[in-house]
């Protein structure tokens, strides 16, 4: 799980459109279906070293991962604009909006002209942006829940879709989750809009919620059940909901009050999480800088296994 970066416009050169991104010029378009949804992929003027088929496969794979996690693609119609960036390499920036031009969601992805197949295979950003479609838009104070969900779900969805190993993402979490710890002078998540607290503090909230829901339901329910219920109730990026409405719906789906109680505990007051204790009970043992091994005799090893297991609804492939 690569750490999210700020939305810096690194490497952008040449002509740029200065109006709303959804009004940018389009040179060609393709569509595909996944999880009951239609996704339109538009290509802005420019060129890539790779053929369009490989760029499309990258988008389709990310959409498949998100649909697999949620049991469907979250919104019925999504539009993705791929903007080539001359003389650059890699996935440079992704940003998403809701309710744009007749589409429930719209994402703009800036992709370097010299991006390689390896860059696409290693990318987390396309999946991250598509996860954003699956939660109602929030006020600035609650931006951490939007980013925290995307940080936490992206790698899990890719494991569930067979693209990453559990060892890889748990090692990344062990390395990166401490970035969300409150710093001296920090307040709760609603009042500390720093990069670390927004992305990784939000991710800590999601991890703790997932584990707590599974503890309280004897591993019969998890965070994905809460989030699927929010989507089923219409709580997607094109809607503006109070955060408590979304959390209440999620809690009702799991028969717990985990989300609402954690929000009450973490929104106004800084909460430091004993991550070492959490890893130990999940059976995650750090063996190197980016390596872990699993202790399946740990008290909550079954919870760790359930978090990354492919849902009973199965992998949802493009074309479905």
Per DSSP E runs of 2 or more residues, the count of β-strands stands at 7
Q: Counting H and I runs of at least 4 residues, what is the number of helices?
A: 11
Contiguous low-pLDDT stretches (5 residues minimum) are 1-15
**Order of neighbouring strands in the sheet with most strands:** 1-2-3-5-4
Overall pLDDT score = 94
Provide the helix percentage: 40-55%
The major β-sheet equals: 5 strands, mixed
Helix vs. strand class: alpha/beta
Number of domains: 2
Question: How would the global form be characterised?
Answer: globular
C-alpha end-to-end distance: 27 Å
Along the chain, the helix and strand elements come as: EEHEEEHHHHHHHHHEEH
Radius of gyration: 19 Å
- Percentage of residues in DSSP E strands: 15-25%
Q: What's the gist of this structure?
A:
By secondary structure, the protein is an alpha/beta fold. Helices cover 41% and strands 16% of the residues.
Layout of helices and strands:
Elements: E1 28-34, E2 37-43, H1 52-70, E3 77-85, E4 91-100, E5 103-112, H2 117-122, H3 125-131, H4 143-160, H5 166-176, H6 195-216, H7 223-232, H8 243-254, H9 258-266, H10 275-282, E6 284-288, E7 291-294, H11 301-308
Helix pairs in contact: 1-3, 1-4, 3-4, 4-6, 6-9, 7-8
Protein described:
This protein is α/β, with parallel strands linked by helices and 320 residues long. The protein has two domains: 114 residues, Neutral Protease, domain 2 (Orthogonal Bundle), CATH 1.10.390.10; 158 residues, no CATH class. The protein is built from eleven helices and seven strands. The strands form two sheets. A five-stranded mixed β-sheet has the order 1-2-3-5-4, covered by helices on one side. Strand 1 and strand 2 form a beta hairpin. The longest helix has 22 residues. It is globular and about 55 Å long. The two termini are 27 Å apart. The N terminus is likely disordered.
